[in-house]
Fold this protein.
Amino acid sequence: MLRYLGQRFVMMLISLWLIATLTFMMMLAVPGDPFTGEKKLPPETLKNLKAAYHLDKSYPEQYLYYMKNLVMMDLGPSIKYTTRTVNEIISEGFPASAQLGVQAIILSLILGLTLGAIAALRQNRIPDYTATVIAVLGVSIPSFVMAPILQKYLGLEWELLPIATWEGFEYSIMPTIALAVLPLAMVTRLMRSSMLEVLNQDYIRTARSKGLSPRRVIIHHTLRNAILPVVTIMGPLTAGILTGSFVIEKIFSIPGIGKYFVDSVTNRDYPVIMGITIFYSAFLILMNFLVDLIYGWIDPRIKVGHKEAN
Amino acid sequence: MKRWVATTTAILMVLSMVLLAACGKGDSNAMAEKQVLNVGYIVSEPPALDPLKATDDQSGLILRHIMEGLVRVDKNGKVEPGMATNWDVMDGGKKIVFHLRDAKWSNGDPVTAHDFEFAWKRLLDPKNAAEYAYQLFYLKNGEAYNSGKAKAEDVGVKALDDKTLEVTLEAPVPYFVTLTSFYPFFPVNKKVVEKDPNWGTNAKTYVSNGPFLLKTWVHDKKVEIVKNPNYWNAKRIKLSQINFPFVGEEQTEYQMYVSGSLDINRNVPNDLAPKLIKEKKAKVNKDPSMYFYVFNTKKKPFDNVKIRKAFSLAIDREAIVKDVLGQGQTPATGWVPWGIPDFAQNKEWVQTHDPYIQPKANPAEAKKLLQEGMKEAGISKLPEITISYNTNDGHKKIAEAVQQMWKQNLGVNVKLANMEWKVFLDNLTQGNFQVARYGWYPDYIDPMTFIDLWVTGGGNNHAKYSNPQYDALIKQAKSTDDQKVRMEAMHKAEEMLARDIPVTPIYNYTRVYQIKDYVKGFYQEMDGQFNFLDTYLTEK
């Protein structure tokens, strides 16, 4: 197990290094730089600016300089937000993004699993159709449409919740719902179909014929097995929540790091592009690793770290 | 029984009087008890509140309320005293001596001329790599110091004593005093900055001298400023606090405004604007900026002046303004937009000359000129024409309208090419375009900020236009502080642009905003910036 963990860790570092290097190369290949603007700067000012951010050096030198700092966990200064460092942007913005993401995941899991399970148990009856409609709507209505609708009704018309900004828990409810809709729909659909599949398995029939109560059959035999496919998509699901948050954070004016993902590219703010990409990649790689571990824990047949056994 | 009726009547009468009085109070200008203004203006984190690093509108809005330069500009565009009470212009406009008032920094230190000298040199110091260093290139040796060719002592700014600041310029600049109201010219507290270079990055360490003080700055969330009780003109300021939440979405900001959590909304959604303006729910202000199409005069077919003229004449600007935009914009009549004054005639520049451009298209003349131009250029068929613009819904709609007009009025097929902003700029700089959209807004309120754009080799001269006579006129205007001579030279230069057409102006910009009725005493400065110094709130 330890050896496996060690191997995975090295692999994770290599992936991260590859991502960082590729991003660095692509970033510099895109036309324009941080100082391209509507009004052109005088050459001497431009020269001073480039020197201040080490952009006057050759690409390999810039790359080495960046990597050296990266190893020291220093992501450099933001070029657009001149008085902040990338480390500050991430450490100040991540708590809001994380809160939103975690709430959205919890909401989509709890509701999605419940709805999916109910739909499967009441197949082709009203609860099933309701769950299906919710799932279809959730997948087909993009969050940037969902969010303004929520704002208009919950915020403006019925005055139940604040429209935007980030001042306390009630401010996080609407964005959480908007962000959770898509994963919620995905989880519902997946849970329904895997539940149905499990319900038709021989061991369920065995369990029932043994005389176990329907409740015990569902909780101990069906749910535990049906949940496996949902765990598999937790990785992509987290990725979906992260990318979804770019839009949601903007619409609800949330002080997270989501908006920097797009804005930094528009601004060609090189250190922020690199910093945010590396941070998100590291996060996703870690999530996938955790999912693998959880997978082995839920289903003992899957032995994490014993590939050669197959 | 009777007594009961009498009592009730009396009570009702008293009540209705109170109610009437309350209503009357609402109509009058009685000040509300709570003087806190919520402003929807700032879209995202202001990049910097240290005058050294600030280069944008949003930082500028906050800065001009928490800091104060030598002067301020009032609502009519006239200079009013700020940190300086008066000034003497000498040496044909090349030397200006400012006399400072007794004023205090928020930490209690006196504001001195040394603070100004220090701040300006700090901005020009090449080590500090300030983007807006060039705003101070008017100073003697300013540019030389910034490029490492002169020393700090050679720069034309000197504190003669605590209260006297002597400024020497490279050439006479009649608008220099006005310029000092712009944030790159703001002072900083020398002692504080020398001790802590990062003083300007958070509210705790921030030291300022303006009518308001920086109370809160939560990154990516909000800025709150409060009245500065020690401001020299504190009695002028009626608001106790201004909140600037950062709202990144126009639709969100609009809904927050409607719901009452914002008192002013600067970012009205484009699709709602025409309707809101019609219903008088949004206001329109002149924005002294120009939207235009620039021709690449070094590339076929627009290297021919007659062809350029033909394409310019084939644009129906009135239709664009009315049918495509609908936000109170006006068709351009020349290169200098509305809102910019002619200082010799004391009138708006656009009213001092006959229009160079007609609002309607002139297809007959355009066709004729196109034929003549093609003959001159020796071509029987036009190459494929492409309009370049940066990806944006508004630019797209205008480009589509122009595409149709050129098709209809000239019989020319036009392609559209949209690009991401910085890719677009890169292509423009490299000359990879035929005709492209662009916009220009003033750096200072003077026609020169527009007129000198097209000098040979100018950094923003994407048309690659070059005309020695035009260059000479600009040089002449820049050599004197005699407004009559300057304005005359610039009028001639504009006429030359109208003849040579390196650029075809389309429309004058507007600023659409919403403001609640109970917000009084609000105005916009000449450059369109919001000013809350006289603002107060009445009862809702």
Remarks:
- The CA atoms of residues 159 and 260 of chain A lie 30 Å apart.
